[in-house]
Every structure is written in C-alpha cells, then in structure tokens.
Amino acid sequence: MSSAKSPGTALVTGASSGIGAIYAERLAARGFDLLLVARDQQRLDVTANILRKDHGVQVEVLRADLTQKDDVLKIEQRLRSDSNITLLLNNAGVAANGLLANADPDQLEQLIQLNVTAVTRLASAAAAGFTKAGRGTIINIASVVALFPERFNATYSASKAYVLSLSQSLNAELEGTGVKVQAVLPGVTRTEIWERSGIDASGIPAEMVMEAGEMVDAALAGLDQGELITIPSLPDASEWQAFVAARHVLGPNLSRSSAAQRYKSVI
After folding, report:
1. Of 99, 184, 179, which Cα lies nearest the Cα of 147?
2. At 24, is the pLDDT very low, low, confident or very high (cuts 50, 70, 90)?
3. Where are the domains of the chain?
4. Phi, psi dihedrals of residue 232, rounded to the nearest 5°
5. How does DSSP assign 186-251, residue by residue?
6. Is the pLDDT of residue 51 over 60?
7. In the predicted model, what is the mean pLDDT of residues 97-103?
8. What pLDDT score was predicted for residue 189?
9. What is the mean pLDDT of residues 122-147?
10. Higher pLDDT residue, 155 or 201?
11. What is the DSSP string of the chain?
C-alpha cells in the first residue's frame, strides 16, 4: 500500500539502469512509491535499496522480461488490479543495428515485442485502471526518429513511430477521463542501449548527445507543463506546433470519394 504522503505508485519498466533508473529517482524525489520492473534482479535490488534510503519511499521490485508474453501478462495484471498505481512509465526498449534486409528476423521480432507489443498491452491495462479511478498518468518513451525515420534503421524507427501514434490516439480516447498521456521523444541520449544493440555511438557528434539526467528532467518539466509530446532538445516549440498544424491541414483531404485529379488518366 502507498505511504500516506505518496501521490501513488509509479510503475517503471526498464528501471535497472539508464533512463528508467533516473526516472525512478526523480519520481521518488517527488514522493512516488515505486514498482520497478526489469530483467536484472541484482541491479533492481541495488537501485531499490538506494531509493528507499535516499527518499524514504516504498519500493517494490518485480523481475520481468518484457519480450516474454507470460512476464508481460504478469505486469499487465498488476496494472489492472493495483489501485495504488497512478503512473505508468513505458520505458523498456531496445535498438537494432544494421539494414532491414540483413537483419536477424528473430531479433527484430523481439524488438517489436518489447518496443510495440509490451508497450501497447501495458498502456491498455493502465488506461483501463486509471479511467476507472478518474486519474493517472501514462508516459511512453518514443524517439525523435519517429519524426525522421530516414536517419536510423527501419525497424527501430517504425517501432518508435508506433509509440508516438499510440500516444496521440490514446490521448484522444482518454479525453475527459482525468488520465494524462505524454510521449517523450529524446534524441541521442547517453545510455547503455547503444552497446547492447551493437551500435558504435562514438562517431556521433558530442553536440547531438544529451546526458540521460538532463533528458529526464526536461521530460518531467514537459509533463508538468501539460505537454502531450515532449521533445527535450527542441529549442523552439513553435516548430513542433507548425508540424502538428500542417498535419491537420491535410486532414480534410485524406479521405474523399474520388481520387485526386493527378491520378486520373488524361485522354
């Protein structure tokens, strides 16, 4: 059960290192109790002990591999049944290296399971529970490659575009329920994801690489400001607003009863 002064419990996936571990620390500092999910039990335990000591919050660890359906179902059930959970951070994810044509299909399937399927199932479970309670926050970690897929490999970029689209659609579905949705689109962030996926990040210009702590702090500031989409490195928010406005201009013409004139035969 959450402690008396707690704003509730935050469930954080991929919580044993990197962005997830930093989010856990920042959320604990805000008074959240924590349910930390990751594959590495030892690192989870170390992280939990530090957070209990430093912030005096309740921290539970739950080892799970979200590429495995049974483990996803375990976390999903917890989201549906535990009314103390008020925030879901869908952070767990993996990158891929190389061209789609040369990729290991089994590795790509695991990426999709983690980056797409698990995110969807957990967001669905959280949305159900939070809607019933009339409050809650769902944060999905996407990536700027969702907006610029040509700059990275196909499967990872597509998976993050899915997360962005899911977040936008889910936000529309949850309008008026009291549930908040945020998609965070980091650029290159200094974490272990690169070496784990076999990508050499040493050649990326230093001015493009953000420290994970700064990224998380910016993302939480965006959440506090009520943003649906937070792009931590974007200097001018009006550029994103213009992008959204251009998309809405397309809207009335995306589905019509006849094909555009340029596609009709000229006799």
Report:
1. 184
2. very high
3. 9-263
4. -55, -30
5. --SEESTHHHHTT--GGGS-GGG-EEHHHHHHHHHHHHHTT-SEE-TT-S-HHHHHHHHHHHHHHG
6. yes
7. 89
8. 74
9. 97
10. 155
11. ---TT---EEEEESTTSHHHHHHHHHHHHTT-EEEEEES-HHHHHHHHHHHHHHH---EEEEE--TTSHHHHHHHHHHHHH-TTEEEEEE-------S-GGGS-HHHHHHHHIIIIIIHHHHHHHHHHHHHHHT-EEEEEE--GGGT-GGGS-HHHHHHHHHHHHHHHHHHHHTTTTTEEEEEE---SEESTHHHHTT--GGGS-GGG-EEHHHHHHHHHHHHHTT-SEE-TT-S-HHHHHHHHHHHHHHGGGSS-SS--GGGSPP-
Q: Report, in angstroms and rounded to the nearest whole number, the Rg of the chain calculated over CA atoms.
A: 20
CA 22, CA 28: separation in Å to the nearest integer? 10
Q: How far apart are CA 18 and CA 20, in angstroms?
A: 6
Q: Which residues contact 96 (CB under 8 A, 6 or more apart)?
A: 103, 107, 108, 111, 153, 155, 156, 197
pLDDT at position 67 = 96
Give the mean pLDDT of the chain: 92
For 77, the token pair is 């059930």
* Active-site annotation holder among 23, 156, 162, 263: 156
- Tell me if 15 sits within 8 A of 47, measured CB to CB: yes
**pLDDT exceeds 60 at position 1:** no
Report long-range pairs for 211-215 (Cβ below 8 Å, ≥24 apart).
212/18, 212/19, 212/22, 213/22, 215/19, 215/186, 215/189
Fold of 9-263: Rossmann fold (3.40.50)
Contacts of 131 by beta carbon, 8 Å cutoff, 6+ apart: 174, 177, 178, 179
156 is catalytic: yes
